[in-house]
Design goal:
- This protein has 272 residues and is of the alpha/beta class.
- It contains 11 helices and 7 strands.
- Helix 2 links the parallel strand 2 and strand 3.
Length: 272
């Protein structure tokens, strides 16, 4: 059985993070959330907490110290993942990597969702412990921008190529610039193990659409930074996100319970 490890920091633990963690529990993964800072104080987190193991992220890498010295949280999270994989090995996942089924019991999982040939992604990684590749990544990331590029460069140096360990489509059925498929009528790829939501790209686009088409797409689908939730999924059941939520909620029976809890939570204004 895989133990899926996630890094989390901040209070903004939302619906998308909730269903991702819930999906890993659903497929049989043991879930550990390595927490930096205070625990989120909202209902999504509270409903998950009894079913996961919460651990102190700073035991692996002193995220607080790195940020206090001017480092960004994004770089800190990448440094954390490489420190974790070097020290412990095993499976690391971003909190936007939805699990469709139990991941393979292989020693390595390295694939790509990138548009640049020969570039590997770091959203889902599995490796044995103590591999020196990760020490090189840690060293380089502190000096060079582009954590995906750093990882790809180091991987090539050790293995002579950037070939994925599995077919890319098994963990990244669509590439990072195709994130809008999440909100379209898209078939769930049943051969895949995971679907990546690309939350950072999505958040940036929602805040500042780069093109008229993006703005029009969000407007027509009534999408904004606060309404990607159960209600949106149930109003759009034919979309990929709607289908993922429906399959997860039907399997676990959480729909009514979560709705009621969130209603109570919002009435008392305790959700962040």
């Amino acid at each position: 059985m895989n133990n899926a490890n996630f890094f989390w920091s901040g209070q903004n633990f939302r619906f998308l993070e909730y269903i991702v963690i819930k999906s890993h529990i659903s497929v049989g993964h043991e879930v550990s959330i390595w927490l930096h800072g205070d625990r989120p104080n909202n209902e999504y987190w509270k409903m998950l907490e009894p079913n996961v193991t919460i651990k102190d992220a700073d035991v692996i890498f002193n995220t607080s110290d790195f940020i206090s010295k001017g480092g960004t949280l994004r770089t800190a999270s990448d440094l954390w993942r490489f420190n974790y994989l070097y020290q412990n090995g095993g499976l690391y996942c971003d909190t936007d990597a939805f699990a469709l089924k139990a991941f393979p019991e292989t020693e390595w999982i390295v694939c790509s969702a990138e548009t640049i040939p020969g570039t590997l992604s770091i959203g889902v990684l599995k490796a044995p412990p103590n591999h020196p590749m990760f020490l090189d990544c840690i060293s380089l990331i502190k000096n060079y921008w582009g954590n995906v590029l750093v990882f790809s460069q180091v991987y090539k140096q050790y293995f002579g190529n950037a070939n994925p360990t599995h077919k890319n489509e098994l963990f990244y059925p669509y590439k990072w610039n195709e994130y809008k498929k999440l909100f379209k009528r898209t078939t769930i790829p049943m051969e895949a193990f995971s679907i990546h939501f690309y939350s950072n790209v999505l958040e940036n686009q929602l805040r500042n659409p780069k093109t008229y088409y993006d703005k029009y797409f969000f407007m027509m689908n009534k999408l904004n930074s606060t309404n990607i939730d159960i209600e949106w999924c149930e109003k759009h059941p034919a979309t990929l996100l709607g289908k993922l939520w429906r399959s997860l909620s039907m399997e676990s029976g959480v729909t009514n319970s979560l709705k009621n809890n969130l209603k109570t939570c919002n009435e008392y204004n305790i959700c962040s």
